[in-house]
Amino acid sequence: MISAYGQHEVTPESVVDAAMPLHPVISPDGRWAAYTVAAVGRTQDGPSSAIWIAATDGSSSPRKVTAGTANDFGPRWAPDSASLFFGSDRVERGTIQMYRIPLDGGDEERLTTWRRGISDYVPLADGRQVAVVAEEPPADEDEQAEGDERAEGDDAKVWGERVPNSRLWLLDLDTGRSRPVDGLGDRHVVEVAQRPDGGALAVLSWATPELDPGCLTCEVHVVDVETGKVRALGRAALDASSPTWWDRDGVWHLCYLATTPPGPVGGRAVFDLVVPETGLAADHHNLTSGMTVCPAGLAQVAEGPPVALFADGLDTAIYRLDPETRTFRRTTSMEGMATALTASHSGEVVVALASTAYEPMDVHAGSPAGRLVRLSDTRPELRGLGWGRQERLSYQASDGLDLDGLLILPAGSSRHDGPFPLITLVHGGPYARHADQFMLGVIPSGQWLATAGYAVFLPNPRGGEGHGHAFAATVAGAVGLDEWTDIATGIDLLIAGGVADPDRLGIAGWSHGGFMSAWAVGQTDRFKAAVMGAGISDWGMLVATGENGTLEAGLSGSCGWEGAGPHRHDRLSPISHAARIRTPVLILHGEDDTNVPVGQATYFHRALRRFGVEHEFVVYPREGHAIRERGHQLDVLRRTRAWFDRWLAVPARDHR
């Protein structure tokens, strides 16, 4: 455990100039874990990352198997566990090709040279083929030149034309030739998984690559590997992902994660269908209905039932499907956050990323019924730094609903040293959560603020992950209402307990958390400073311009085209309450954000300017919904803390 009394200063560079593990995958024989190690902050040229492997029994130190001078990522094991496939843009930045490297340290082999690259790849059980997902087939030089020629001015973007749907191809490793799977038509391939006995492929597809309406139109298909013949199984639930095969008494089932109906609010569930010999699949049975935990990952296990990760309040648990009852049963609990679960062919060993309160995210391995042991150590330099004490909180909302969250005290302090200036950090989603994990990151970060002398409250209001479908669904058409009072109740309890100074309160968040910050300052004057990161100011405009489109109406309750109004989404939009705002606001946004377009921030900025509210408006070029470039990440950290220092570091009355 990291001591709460370190000797070294926490700098922005110590946050940004670090490594993070991604994409862990266990070898079929269960002996090895491969994973990506990427830099937290990237250059303008793009991300850089390397592939590493580690023995799952911890018998040897992890070793780096690719140079990492470009974006080497997404390892996939060959069926014999003797080599690794991975993607890389080392030849042309931003264009991914597939490579293979032997486990014994031989030379890397480039397997694709496709003009626009590939997006996914699944090595097949026969060892001779790889299922490849790409926007278009490989082309020779003449075809490439012809395809690149375009009449001057012929670059109009017409909706529905030249849509780069991803197709499915079967690549022969011996000949290098690929054959298309034509039976899927022009549908956009989202995900592929092979039956563990080497049989058919399960394919999830959308009508279009766009989230709206793409994920609303998800279908399930079965592809015969030998003939390429496709059989449609019909419509899947909303935003289906993680197709996972399992066998019961010779009958094949297919599980997948999806949003619970009626959607899109209510969180994820595991659905299961029997794969028929002919015709469409019948019932898509919800295996997690009524559970008070939330599925967060599925892992295929040979021919037996799948293993799954579940978000369980502030912690995570591993479950196994009982094939007789078709219900999930807990096998072990894990403190804090775990994600990216993967299982060996036999299911006797699993690998996942995991983090606890004072240990950053790393690769862990072990039995799904036992304790997982850390394999990687990607951020050892953090052990010499001083962190705030992280406490678990549980309390009741004003209507009696049980809630949880976290409190981080200023580094080197205890509750007896309070009251402290308190900053509330609201998570995104709203279907996300604050698990009891190590809270050091670029976007308003708990430990980053705690090392500057702030107490930090991380609430889990209704609408989030970890407490089942009913808990998550309560914000449908009601964002900012009971969700906000849940947060306010927690703040009141911290004030009453002598932890928080009522005259020095701040609030911050990113994405949905940015919405909640903007919403909060329109409801009350109690906050002396706020940070709105990539936040929503107008739900009607978000339906019109955001990549999620009409899915956002599930949160806000209406769309602008539903008559002359007033509309429910107007009532729930922070912009509608801007005239009440007196709190100084720092607005941060990526210029190229497609999830929450920058117009949301511009609109809020103009409203604050109109009403004379003190604020700063910062737009980061080349950034999307998350801030990726190193220089911008450093700016976010410094600017966020400086903003709170300006308004909260001394009693608020001194600023009046």
Automatic annotation (TrEMBL):
What Gene3D superfamilies would the database entry show?
alpha/beta hydrolase, TolB, C-terminal domain
Which part of the chain is the Peptidase S9 prolyl oligopeptidase catalytic domain?
447-648
For this UniProt record, the keywords arranged alphabetically read as follows:
Hydrolase, Protease, Serine protease
Origin, by domain of life? Bacteria
Tell me the Pfam families matching this sequence.
PD40, Peptidase_S9
Which InterPro entries does its entry note?
6-blade_b-propeller_TolB-like (IPR011042), AB_hydrolase_fold (IPR029058), Peptidase_S9_cat (IPR001375), WD40 (IPR011659)
Q: What is this protein called?
A: Prolyl oligopeptidase family serine peptidase
User: Which source organism does the UniProt entry give?
Assistant: Nonomuraea insulae
